[in-house]
Amino acid sequence: MSGRYVIGIDQSTQGTKALLFDKNGVLMCRVDVPHKQIINDLGWVSHDPEEIYENMVSAVRAVLAKANVSPELVVSIGISNQRETSLIWDRNTGKPLNHAVVWQCSRAVKICERTEIRQQADHIFETTGIRLSPYFPAAKIAWLLENTVGADRLAKEGNICHGTMDSFLVFRLTHGQTYATDYSNASRTQLFDIFDLKWDEKICGLFGIDPDNMPKVMDSDACYGYTDVEGIFSEPIPIHAVMGDSHAALFGQNCCENGQTKATYGTGSSIMMNIGDKPTLSHNGLVTSLAWGRSGKVNYVLEGNLNYTGAVITWLKDGLHLIENAAQTQELAKSANKDDGLYLVPAFSGLGAPYWNAHAKASIVGMDRTTGRAEFARAALECIAYQITDIVKAMTEDSHINLTELRVDGGPTRNDYLMQFQSDIAGCRVLVPNQEELSGIGAAYMSGIAVGLWDDSILTRMKRTSYEATMDGSAVKVKYEGWKEAVSLVNR
């Protein structure tokens, strides 16, 4: 094979990254292009799909120029994407018909409250593995179809496309030749039967969606067609991997075996456990999804999502002005009064998994006269670890797998205090990789493996820092019980 490079595209909530990997799987260069966060006076959050597509093209061009690499040396592209963000576009022109509804946006809540949909909530969960919520694309696509001029006519003619951001990018990159998504993204739509691996006609009908207008569902490592990326490549190259960003991070972390678990620490967090080739529905407030499809076989995951993890540190900085930057929290936490029993329950937009209480309010519990800036910083860090431990414990109950290690990624993992506390409270080894862009890495590695540039051993080469649990068991018990009591005060 004459080519020596793979491009990973990570299309995320805040922007689009292009990452260039060499023949040894080493990240050579990265370019980030942010896009606008469109927020109206109702709090609706939108993105401009056209801007995102143009930014992706710009990022690919820029990363090659920055690395001084000829496009002819690139053998394939892999794409990871923000997952539940939903959009609709014209099948004939490829042009978006409206702004995309971002995963954070709850404008479709009234669709989920419709009687005919609420009455089928159990069927929806038992088929898709997901509890009824406007968070997922089923309601978002329904809202777009109902509130976009001309959408109804195009849908009846079969000339409309709708789905998640990956299917739009692939459609545009292949000039409309490929209208497809992968198993990981399909499983997050709340329209996909995760047992029979197909769009569920009954659920699609509940939301007013014609399943024939949904994209084809393919393996995550399939060939999604060929692209010249708007003329950057003189000879089109294959798009040979597509995955939702959390699933790509799971793959990049080499969590390919039953029971292996990763936690991504970002603005919010995704905690995901590989549960093998058989789906298990959660009885503890988690979601069951598909990890990926590879070579005709699928893997499943249990997942819990949190809204406020890294965002808590942002709140300390921008809301309370207690810190100037995130790095300060480490030394502040270490200097805090060890006898101070402050807990922060960050239910700023309700409690997520595994509690699912949209009406809960954030709370500070256990404050006394000794509580100060350092104690607030420590409580902010510790609430991240407590929330993730809640989900890890729920996963253990659902899967009957005792977790011995947790693979982590994201900016907050650079905080030694947080990582050590996470290990202590969760009671397992915490492994921090020496690289941060796990979603882009996972998509690129899957693509490179698919075209034969690498084999699966590429997944084992990442170096990691290990944190071992050292806190006395009785101290862990007291701290965690205090957290559960603090949560109970807001979870009513």
Q: Architecture of the largest domain, CATH level 2?
A: 2-Layer Sandwich
Strand count, sense and closure of the main sheet? 7 strands, mixed
CATH homologous superfamily annotation of the largest domain: ATPase, nucleotide binding domain
CATH top level of the largest domain? Alpha Beta
Tell me what portion of residues adopts beta-strand conformation.
15-25%
- The spatial strand order of the largest sheet comes to 18-19-17-16-22-23-24
The number of E-state strands comes to 24
Q: How is the CATH topology of the largest domain named?
A: Nucleotidyltransferase, domain 5
Radius of gyration: 22 Å
First-residue to last-residue Cα separation:
61 Å
Flag low-confidence runs: none
The helix-and-strand class reads alpha+beta
Structure characterization notes:
This protein has 492 residues and is an alpha+beta fold. It is 34% helix and 24% strand. The chain contains 16 helices and 24 strands. The chain has helices at residues 49-67, 109-112, 115-118, 121-128, 137-147, 151-157, 165-173, 183-186, 201-206, 245-252, 310-319, 328-335, 373-399, 416-426, 438-450, 473-490; strands at 5-11, 15-21, 27-34, 38-39, 45-47, 74-81, 86-90, 100-101, 160-164, 180-182, 192-193, 198-199, 216-218, 226-227, 237-244, 261-265, 269-276, 287-294, 297-306, 343-345, 363-365, 405-409, 429-433, 464-467. Strand 2 and strand 3 (27-34) form a beta hairpin. Helix 12 (328-335) crosses helix 13 (373-399) and helix 13 packs across helix 14. The chain starts with a strand and ends with a helix.
